Amino acid sequence: MKINPVYRLKGDIKVPGDKSISHRAIMLGSVAKGHTLIKDFLMGEDCLSTIRCFKQMGVSITINKNTVSVKGNGLHGLKQPDQLLDVGNSGTTMRLMSGLLCGQEFDCSLTGDSSIIKRPMKRIIEPLTRMNGRIKSINGDNRAPLYIQSSTLINIDYTSPVASAQVKSSIMLASLYTSGITTITEPYTSRNHSELMLNHFGGNVQVDGTKVICTPVDELFAQEVIVPSDISSAAYFMVAGLISKNSEIIIRDVGINPTRAGIIHVLQSMKGQIELDNIRMINSEKVADIIVKSSNLEGTVVEGSIIPTLIDEIPIIAVAAAFAEGKTIIKDAAELKVKESNRIDTTVNELKKMGVDISPTDDGMIIQGGTPLHGAVLDSYHDHRVAMSLTIAALNASSNTNLLNSKCIDISYPTFFEDLKRLF
Question: Are 232 and 19 in contact (CB under 8 A)?
């Protein structure tokens, strides 16, 4: 993909639906009673993998443009798949579905692509095993493929060593098949879409600080779900508008859930001009229109409890930092090492090629901003977030950039380049 510099961006866009919410709506709709209607569903490869897996388990799912209809089978109505469940590149599908499958009355196996089989699964295997789940790594390396056998689950009190919505959600879904109260305590609060959506579908989830308390219910009930635009996808346009001169972008209907809105707070702390307009609630999720204008950014420190609220946005924060005056330090983000790529190394290596003064640390990176960027031949490492972040950097380079392996963007944002061109 050849990317030419574009120094001014103006316009009004709506990015696709939230990936986290889209996944969860399919999963809960599949085990609820009745017809669930999901509007503004994200038609990215990851979410389509979730649909394919539940279709294999006997769930009737139909797609009409960006609306998905799910005829739920109830909590105990999934059918044994006749072949491996392939999650593709989706870590969310792998980890959340594992919790749900531990409570089923059949055995099954889960696998994924070359990226998935490298990602750590011990973080879900350990708590699910404590719940009496019979889940194991087929190769004995605590990675996929996984084999899950039917068992009778028990409730647990679990303290997670990491603030991970995927770990928390996997346990929450397994807790639907226990007879007692399960608690999950995190070091920091991770994104809370599972808590909100489970309650929306008739579940019983309470939150006390960083502790989540799950009480099983007899049934979940189908709902209408309107998926807000994904703040992780909006983040690329937020940064693009801030670092491009004489620019103004309005991004419509973006989910600004407090457990996801760290990117807004960080960019504002860097003196970015960001306004929220038309703030409202949709299906218990906070939504707003985001207005960004060209800004003279300043360096900042990103660390601690805000990290789980923006873990997927760190590559694009690094791009913002490259265009800011002064030093930006990103800490407490070792989780980046086990994403689709090692996002510390990939972000640092590729931005260095463009002339950015950036260096890795054990749990983050340090960026000395203010050095003009030049074009280069860049590699996404088949990581959609890295690919989109490098694209935004390339728009503001002094010469053309060639981005390799850009097709991976389809995982979360199939219309990314089309939407971007609308702002030229």
Answer: yes
What are the catalytic residues?
Answer: 312
204-251: pLDDT as tens digits: 999 999 999 999 999 999 999 999 999 999 999 999 999 999 999 999
Closest to 369 measured CA to CA, from 353, 351, 386: 351
28: domain range?
A: 19-226
254 shares a domain with 208: no
Mark whether 48 and 180 lie in a shared domain.
yes
The tokens of 366 are what?
A: 């340090």
CA dihedral 138, 48, 350, 394 (to 10 degrees): 180
Contact 44, 18 (CB under 8 A): no
- What's 287's domain CATH number? 3.65.10.10
Tokens found for residue 404: 């390799």
How far is it, in rounded angstroms, from Cα 79 to Cα 338?
32
Compute the Cα dihedral for 38, 42, 43, 49 and give only its sign.
negative
